[in-house]
User: What shape does this take?
Amino acid sequence: MGALDIEPTRRADLAGLAGDIVRLEAIFETWEATPRGAVDAYRRAIEDLHAEALRRLIRALKGDPAAAAALKAAAVDEVVYAVLRRHEIVKPSVSERVEAALETIRPMLAGHGGDVELVAVKPPAIEVRFLGACDSCPASALTFHSGVKTAVQAACPEITEVLQVKGLGKGGGDGALRFISPFAIDAVGHWLPAGTLAEIPEGGIRKLQLNDQNLLLSRQGAVVTCFQNSCAHLGFPLHDGAVADGIITCPYHHFEYDLGTGECLTAPEVQLQPHAVRVIGQNVEVRLAR
Assistant: This one.
């Protein structure tokens, strides 16, 4: 067999690839049970095939020290790591397990107007910070020991110290990251200023023109979404449409869209064109889709 030639392909980041999958899954969820089940079975068959191929490849190579080192280096790549994690070929990192543990107690903290942030992982210790009302609450020490520390050490026995630090976290401060849309994770560069949180009505919308693009911003608290201001039906602008309970209705032909996901509730096979958003302090920034 000759040398293996790999055809060069376009570079795609994890957020873009994952976003494509999420959007397709949202469409499949609207299908009837039989075709949805067929798609799900097809997906599982392909995933099983890929998982087995990856396991055999790793078994064949890990006996060679040089190849094993190359595999370990390759696993640092975000896309490679995500796929290996998906197939449970590599174990979750300490950071992932800590975040999963914190997620289990966030509903309790949210009920008191607070949250918790993972600041640093320095085995055998981690540092966390309380946010919002929990930061200044007199009972935060009790919450810390009975909630955070117990949850983390149950999930990560190798973590023997859970340290609480003070100061502004991602939930406050003019330069602190407060929110980033899911399909913008790991996106870098090309962020454009898009005003402030206060300029977007709570539960409402704001139209904006940015780099010759007509955009539609919506907000729920610090969570902001951005879509092309264009109905997926005939391309008419949406900003004059009625907004209620997170749904906007096109003023022309009454197509309805979920402002959280861009999903079209009238014709589920189409959706609004999303753009990445992040909120830093009180400032909103948008990364236009290519």
